[in-house]
Give the backbone structure.
Amino acid sequence: MPLAYIAQPMLRQGISVAYYCAKVVLLPGLQRLRLLAALTQGELAGRAEVQRQTVSRLERGGQAEPATVRRLSDALGCQPRELIEPER
């Protein structure tokens, strides 16, 4: 799937173009938002249709592809930028 196809909906939600140039990002807000939603890693993985190991790796500082960011944000009911931007 072309990156531009994945990126368009996220660009409309305020994610910077620089994010797409990198193609992968860190998700400093993932664990905080998961815990606020009272979900285990496995429950979030099931909702996002990713493996539990993927959630674990991302919470430990692994990098995520744009499609994974979209799946996780949809599963958590948040905007992708909330996962990408550190808590203020």
Q: What stands out?
A: The chain has one domain: 17-80. DSSP finds seven helices and no strands in the chain. The radius of gyration is 12 Å. The CA atoms of residues 29 and 83 lie 4 Å apart.
